[in-house]
Amino acid sequence: MIAAVVIPAFDLRAALRLRPELETAPAALAPLPGTEAFVGSVTAAAAARGVRPGMRLGEALATCPQLVLVEQDPATVEQSWEEILRRLEELRPDVIAAFPGVLCRIARVIAGSRPTTLRPRFFVTGGEVLTPLMRQQITEAFGVPVVEHYGTHEFGTVAWQCTKMGGLHVSDDGVIVEVLKDGRPAHRGEAGEVVATRLHGFAMPFIRYRLGDLVTQGDPSCPCGAPFSTIFTVQGRMLDYFPLPDGRVLHPYSLVMVILDHGKRWIGQYQLTQERRDRVVLRVVPQVTPSNGDIASFEGAAREHLGPGIEFQVTLVPDIPPEANGKFRVSRSLVESDYDGIDWDHRRAMDLPPQPRSAPRP
Hints:
There is one protein chain. Helices cover 23% and strands 27% of the residues. With 362 residues, it is of the alpha/beta class. Among the domains are: 19-72, MutS, DNA mismatch repair protein, domain I, CATH 3.40.1170; 242-336, GMP Synthetase, Chain A, domain 3 (2-Layer Sandwich). The strands form four sheets. The protein has an eleven-stranded mixed sheet with strand order 1-4-5-6-7-8-13-12-11-9-10. It has a four-stranded mixed sheet with strand order 18-17-16-19. The protein has a two-stranded parallel sheet with strand order 2-3. Strand 9 and strand 10 (184-185) form a beta hairpin. The longest helix has 18 residues, at 74-91. It is globular.
């Protein structure tokens, strides 16, 4: 049996269990105490009035004066996650497919001294970035491997993890994937933007279509012997880039190594937010309470990585809710960037120079 765990607006659903009359009203999750003033998940009625998850509180109330703010109840949320775990234990699926953020949240229930009998053969993740820390937390909690799947609505499966070598096989028989850096093909190990062409979409062709994803270019063929080209990692969305004051554009994925080196012991869930060009905040749900020295050491390492003139602060929070679509966003920038001008609904690569095609494999 394969179980797919998809829970849109999970945190809001948990809160509305105490106030069911608001399910059809314009409502949104109120910011957690001590966090930035952004609303969380919103109801369909609120979305219809222009309120979006992650919107600043003042802007949300100005957009919809009738908006009702629903207080988050961490105890109810925790109870709901435990119910999901119990239901999965009853189903005993062979394979579980879910967003990595959902699996990490269930893993936190297990880490909190809640043993589990859930032992699928493996997990399949997709739909959002699977960071190295997420993979480690899921594997340690359940004791089974995690297989990454990279797909899109436009192309279906784009790549899937090679269980022997660790990279991802590109679905070369269904899609042409170009990885471009500064308008040229990325070299092996370089990160670049995905530009894809669908080979069998006869009713609706997609030709050199900018997916808006950032990946690391891999080898022309996988060392495992499978007849597919590879990408090494899927790093995230292009629109998650952080534009810095000195003109640099930083993808927050580069901060992952700082997290692994200095915060692996105490960081559970996390989210990076660029509030200004010169200020980045890391919200952390700790798995153990860090000392002041732990936080100071981490902040120092992050500031060194970001460079001079950029503030970096760690904020401990009880929970980080997912987006309204159920996905967990590892990073976000509140600063305008060059990528804001891209029409992501019609993101063909017409502004990119044509690239030479490699000869087909014999």
